[in-house]
Each structure stands twice: as C-alpha cells, then as structure tokens.
Amino acid sequence: MELPDPDEVSRRDYLRSLVAVGGTAALSACLDLTGDGGGDEGGSGAPTGDPAERPARQHAWNDALGTDEDGNPRPPEHHVVLALNLATTPDADVRKTVETAFRSLERAYAYDPAGLLFTVGYSPAYFEQVGADQPVPDPEAITTLESPEFDGFDAVVHLASDEAAVVLEAEEALLGEVDEPNGVAMEATLEGVFERAEPRRTGFVGPGLPAQHTGLDGVPDSVPEEAPFFMGFRSGFAESQAPEDRVTIRDGPYAGGTTMHVESLTLQLQTWFEQDSHTQRVSKIYSPEHGEEGLAGDVGEKLGTSTGVAGEIAERTERDARERGMVGHAQKAARARDDDGTPPLLRRDFNTVDNEVPGVHFLSLQRSIDEFVRVRTTMAGEDLAGEGVGQRLNNGILQYIFVRRRGNFLLPPREDRALPEA
Ligand code: HEM
C-alpha cells in the first residue's frame, strides 16, 4: 500500500490511513504531522509509563478507558493486530528477551488510551510447536453461510491507542525498527524471536471516523456523520458487555488469562444504507420494537448504557420472526446471555478499511472459545430461518455482513505472556 497524499484527505483520515499502511515511512509521516517527531530523538509525545502500574490481567483495560457522555467505556481509537511467527526455538533466555521487550513498551507508554493498551496472545499452532496441550481449538467455520480463511500464525499482539503514532511506533519498536519509542530505549525487541506474519489487521472506532471514509468504494455518503461504527449505530453499551471477570479463565495453567476470537468481516454498506429505511435499519440492528417505537434515535444516542433487548425483547425473537417477519441482531444475540442476564462476551471490535474494503474486525474476549461459538451460533439465528425470516433476509444484519477470516488465541495472564509453556 502507498502512503496517502496529505493534501487530499482530512487530517484524521490521513492518520487512519497511515496506521493501515504501517511501517517506518508511515510512522515518520505520522510523527511529522502530530508535531512530535521533529527532533532527532523521535518519539510520539505520549505519556510514558511504569510496568508496575499494569494489572495482572492483560485484558483488564476498562479501568484505563475513558467513558462516553453516558458512562459507557470508550474504546481506543486506533488499532493494529500484529501477526507473528516464531523464528527460533523458545527457551528461558528467549522468554526473558520477549518479556523485556514488552516491559520496554510499558515503560515507553502509559497504561492509558493516551499511551498504549496491548495484549499478547498465542494460537493453537504455537502450542503445537512448543509441544504443549492446546488450550484453544483450531478455528472453524461456525455458520453455514461462511467459508472463511483461518489464522495459522503463532502469536498476536493487539495494540490500541487514541494516538495513531503510538500504535505504529509500538509495532515498529517490537520488530526492532525503532530504538527509542516515545524517547524511551527498548532494552530488547522481538527481532530474531518472531517475524512478521500475515495478515496485518488495522482499524479505528469512534464518532465521526467511519464517515471520513466515504471517498472509498463501498462506503456510501449516507454513513451518518456522527456514527462511531460503519453500520451507523452505537455499539458496546456497558450493559451488553461481559464484565472482565466474566471472561477471565478461572482454573488451570492460564488462570487469570482469557481467550480471544478475531472474526474479520466485510460489509455491504451500499445495500444497507440505500435499500432500507432508517426504521428498518434500527429494527435489524436492535429489534423491531426499537424501530417501531423510535427507541434508538439517529445513531443509538437515545439508548444510554443499555439497548434494553435483554429479557422480554430477546425472548420474543421467534415470535417477531413469525409475526413481524424481522428480527434484530442485538435481540437475537442477547438470547445467549447467562441465566442471570450477564453477557458472556466482551466485544472489542473495530472498523477497518484493510484492503480498501469496509469491514469489521470483530475481536471478542470470552472465558472459552466454546462460549464464542455458542453466542455466534445464536446470533446467526439459523433456528429462525423459515420461521418468517430467511437465512440472511430480515435476520438481523446477516444480509450485509460476510465472514472472511477467523482466528483463535489464548491470552495468558500478564506474568506468563512471554512464550507460555515453552
Ligand atoms: C459488522 C458486524 C457487527 C455489527 C455492526 C454489530 C453491531 C451491534 C450492535 C449495534 C449491537 C447493539 C449494541 C450493544 O449491545 O452494544 C450489538 C450487540 C451485540 N452483538 Fe453485534 N455486531 C456485529 C457483529 C457481531 C458478531 C460477529 C457477533 C458475534 C457473536 C456479535 C455479537 C453481539 C452481541 C453478543 C451483542 C450484545 C447482545 C446483548 O445485549 O446481550 N455481533 N452488535
């Protein structure tokens, strides 16, 4: 991918494009623009950090996140999911090098969205290579509508920050291309231990960001100006997210860790925005009642911290299919909540224009991959097809989303994040 022309796009779009392109050239362009890279010392100008301030759980981000005006956790704006393959045989020395590299990043950036939030995960292929039992299964197709590719690389680092320069710089620092991220020396890097693998996933989330991509084929002008996600509606309400405790592994060698599934989807936004009315879109995203009663507002701003789909609206899903000929995505998915109403998944998904196509990297944390499969199956609503809705048609948002790729990972607790079991 080539670097975009800064004179042809807005500043935010330019920064977003630089994250998508990646590499040291994109990083310098980014630092030039944000005004922090002028001197020889480089650096992104973010707050620096202290490893001792990070919690024991890698996935414990909520305490660091800010909140929106309603009190929902606000995800970091910029994301890179870096794929890695092992390039050596791990032993105690190598593990120390890897841990030192991660600690260097924690010194370079604060545990804060203005600094860097990150997690490190390992795939089934990794555990096979080091001769350990596989704590997560190989990824598989989950629904009859998909034939995805699967992540086969060994390890993954999810980097997230409100600053585009930070995710780019942290990535390059890990790979040994930048010596002093944010002005702080890397005491070790992953060079020689891991090498970059494919795919490199990137993305963004936040009010106004999706609407900046209307220049791209497949992103219609009708994406609402203030929408935080491409499909035009708010997501990630506090009440519909699993608490971090609920996704934490309780026993065994990885107690304190979690599992991560990454489902990469492409979106058919043209049809979504141009075929349906706003009421239909609200019905398909949340529930028919939300559409009929005008419960959501333009982009879901009326919903506060809860969609209100859990309970009665979720229980009515099958009847809505039969009687209204339509069911909502959130309504359907909420059927998979625990008996006490707790959602089992902590969704940390974000928008993407990787490969110049609008999409979502649906990154989800849960105690076990089985739980993801169970919720995803419920969301697919294959039980509803023929009951008044089709396999895709009027069955939530299935007509507009296409699964391209899946990956399963184990995120160990922080103290075991460097080459576990090796
Ligand atoms: C392009 C893809 C997707 C979009 C645009 C989307 C959008 C949304 C929206 C707007 C909500 C309601 C807001 C909220 O509760 O936070 C929601 C809820 C939810 N979605 Fe999605 N979603 C997508 C894909 C998925 C996938 C792949 C899954 C996989 C299981 C999923 C699972 C859920 C769950 C579990 C809920 C919460 C239901 C509850 O209240 O218990 N979504 N989604």
Give a nutshell description of this structure:
This protein is α+β, with helices and mostly antiparallel strands and 422 residues long.
What does this structure look like?
It is a single chain. The chain has a domain at 11-211. The strands form two sheets. Strands 3, 7, 8, 9, 10 and 11 form a six-stranded mixed beta sheet that branches. Strands 1, 2, 4, 5 and 6 form a five-stranded antiparallel beta sheet that branches. The radius of gyration is 21 Å and the shape is globular. Helix 1 packs antiparallel against helix 2 and helix 1 (11-21) runs parallel beside helix 5 (164-174). Residues 37-42 have low confidence and may be disordered. It has helices at 11-21, 23-34, 92-108, 124-129, 164-174, 269-275, 278-285, 288-293, 312-315, 317-324, 329-333, 369-380, and strands at 78-86, 117-122, 149-150, 155-161, 194-196, 201-204, 258-267, 346-347, 350-352, 359-366, 401-411. By secondary structure, the chain is α+β, with helices and mostly antiparallel strands. The protein binds protoporphyrin IX containing FE.
Keywords:
five-stranded antiparallel beta sheet, 12 helices, 25% helix, six-stranded mixed beta sheet, alpha+beta, 422 residues, 15% strand, binds protoporphyrin IX containing FE
Give the topology.
Elements: H1 11-21, H2 23-34, E1 78-86, H3 92-108, E2 117-122, H4 124-129, E3 149-150, E4 155-161, H5 164-174, E5 194-196, E6 201-204, E7 258-267, H6 269-275, H7 278-285, H8 288-293, H9 312-315, H10 317-324, H11 329-333, E8 346-347, E9 350-352, E10 359-366, H12 369-380, E11 401-411
Parallel strand pairs: 3-11
Antiparallel strand pairs: 1-4, 1-5, 1-6, 2-4, 7-10, 7-11, 8-10, 9-10
This protein binds protoporphyrin IX containing FE.
